[in-house]
TrEMBL record:
Bilayer topology term: Multi-pass membrane protein
Catalytic activities: L-cysteinyl-[protein] + hexadecanoyl-CoA = S-hexadecanoyl-L-cysteinyl-[protein] + CoA
The protein, known as: Palmitoyltransferase
Biased composition range(s): Polar residues: 1-10
Entry's free-text remark on domains: The DHHC domain is required for palmitoyltransferase activity.
Organism: Trypanosoma cruzi
Swiss-Prot/TrEMBL GO biological process terms: protein targeting to membrane
Entry keyword set: Acyltransferase, Membrane, Transferase, Transmembrane, Transmembrane helix
Stated family: Belongs to the DHHC palmitoyltransferase family.
EC number(s) on file: 2.3.1.225
């Protein structure tokens, strides 16, 4: 019997879930060579996160407290206000610290006090890069809500631009995944238009975070180019105050800025060009890697022209997150 439970509490031994709008179903206890085990089930819509306007026979099971073998909707991540925080999301703090340190050394030691335009350019580029970095690790990448196991659920074939594409069933999330979606084994959830899991930032790059991740590299590349060129100009210009303390500090700051920008450029510049290329081709990194290894043929199913692809990936609609405060902590 399904009992609506919008306000009843739940205890550790089973009972009524605490989440508003949930429906709870108590199954008979099962004896499995040991203590009796009870399981509780409820229903939610995988698209809306609640049972409203969803046929009774199609409602899917979920738990508000974790039973044995259940899967958490948000995997190994957590919802903080409107931000999806992964367990390794704090890794990005190191990137922020290094970036700010280089910018501060450059601005305090290299730039003349009256060179206002340089301060403005560096401040704008650094701010844009940091915003993109923060968005990359806090925005929902496009998490697909899991479903309970169903042995009758089978792969499906859909048409994409007139070509048949197979939608596979995820063995972990038990959903029929949309095309280009994959299960992230680090975050433990399926992600729409999965690009890759970034171990440095500790977050997934996918449909809703691709633009921020790529934007971080583009803005950082422009920033280090400006810092490197401006530092080189300072080193090449004769300095009559070189024997003074201030002159030696400016020289040291210019050398540090030039070396730091050079080392960072070896990593950031290729990645910036790579993510512009991926956007123009409408590839994900996963698809690009499979193509380069010969595991698949060039996929033109999603190609709509270079400019249209680019603006769609970087400036197109972000889409609505499926994760809400009501379903983030549920188990299925």
């Amino acid at each position: 019997m399904n009992v609506p439970t919008s306000s009843s509490p739940m205890n550790r031994d089973g009972g009524i879930p605490t989440k508003p709008g949930a429906y709870f179903h108590q199954e008979p206890a099962v004896q499995e060579n040991g203590p009796r085990k009870a399981s509780g089930e409820g229903f939610f819509s995988p698209m809306t996160g609640g049972p409203q306007n969803f046929p009774e026979q199609q409602r899917q099971n979920f738990y508000s407290l974790r039973p044995a073998g259940a899967k958490r909707v948000l995997g190994r991540s957590h919802l903080l206000s409107c931000c999806v925080i992964t367990r390794d999301g704090a890794n990005s703090i190191c990137i922020v610290a290094i970036l700010l340190l280089v910018v501060l050394v450059f601005m305090l030691g290299v730039l003349p006090r009256g060179e206002i335009y340089s301060y403005v350019v560096v401040s704008l580029l650094a701010t844009a890069a940091l915003i993109c970095l923060v968005m990359s690790v806090t925005v929902d990448p496009g998490i697909l809500l899991p479903l309970p196991p169903d042995p009758t659920r089978q792969p499906e074939t859909v048409l994409v631009n007139g070509k048949e594409v197979l939608r596979k069933v995820c063995p972990s999330c038990h959903i029929v995944r949309p095309p280009r979606s994959s299960h992230c084994r680090f975050c433990d959830y399926c992600v729409e238009e999965f690009d890759h899991h970034c171990g440095v930032l500790g977050s997934c790059v996918a449909k809703r975070t691709f633009r921020f991740f790529g934007g971080f590299f583009v803005f950082t590349a422009l920033l280090i180019l400006f810092i490197g060129i401006r530092s080189l100009v300072t080193l090449a210009k004769p300095d009559p105050q070189l024997n003074t303390g201030q002159g030696r500090w400016e020289m040291a700051a210019a050398i540090i800025s030039l070396v730091a920008s050079g080392l960072a450029g070896c990593i950031v510049l290729p990645l910036a060009f790579y993510y512009v290329y991926l956007a123009c081709m409408n590839y994900t990194q996963k698809e690009s890697a499979q193509l380069s290894l010969g595991f698949c043929e060039p996929n033109q199913d999603y190609h709509r022209g270079y400019w249209r692809n680019f603006f769609s990936r970087y400036f197109g609609p972000l889409g609505t997150s499926r994760i809400t405060a009501e379903n983030a902590e549920f188990y299925v």
